[in-house]
Amino acid sequence: MELTSFLDYRKKTVVDKAKNGDKEAFLSLMDENRLNIYRVARGILKNEEDIKDAIQNTLIKAFENIYTLKKDKYFKTWLIRILINECNETLRKNKRSVALDENIGGIDEKYHDRYENMDLINAINLLSDECRVTITLFYFDDLSVKNISEILKVSEGTVKSRLNRARAKLREILGEDE
């Protein structure tokens, strides 16, 4: 059996177990996806507490609704879609209750990964929400245009257009005009 076939089989069995109520299997899936989940949430939200809340709500909703997942191989796509919805809900709540934070474009420094303190992260934070999410999913989570299209429920052409706009804006912000 090829390695990719084995990994697909393993993932399928873990997702299947989680769908049948196995808490350990569910926790294993969450552990495999925790960095991706954090990066997507951080790409949308700026406040560390909002990020934690969105992730926590995502995990609860995913656990309660995992039985609705139709195809096991789309678990990650399904999970990220829930997370994006939670992040968008947090943004809507924040717009209603709080004025814009004076630290626009800043990032919370509590989380430490190899992307921290980079000009690129600050530049990405200056992008529109739709471009920031698309760039984050494509470059930080290594998702394909097709997968991003499915997650965001937009056409592949829209994803490509957002990627091109985001790249152009990043070149402009970072001073790398051609």
Automatic annotation (TrEMBL):
Keywords: Sigma factor, Transcription, Transcription regulation
InterPro entries (UniProt xref): RNA_pol_sigma-70-like, RNA_pol_sigma-70_dom, RNA_pol_sigma70_r2, RNA_pol_sigma70_r4_t2, RNA_pol_sigma_r2, RNA_pol_sigma_r3/r4-like, WH-like_DNA-bd_sf
Domain RNA polymerase sigma factor 70 region 4 type stretches: 119-170
Family annotation (Gene3D superfamilies): 1.10.1740.10, Winged helix-like DNA-binding domain superfamily/Winged helix DNA-binding domain
Origin: domain of life: Bacteria
Keyword flag Transcription regulation: yes
GO biological processes: DNA-templated transcription initiation
CDD domains, alphabetized: Sigma70_r4
Domain RNA polymerase sigma-70 region: 30-96
A GO molecular function held by the record: DNA binding
Keyword presence, Transcription regulation: yes
Family note: Belongs to the sigma-70 factor family. ECF subfamily.
Protein name stated in the entry: RNA polymerase sigma-70 factor (ECF subfamily)
Originating organism: Marinisporobacter balticus
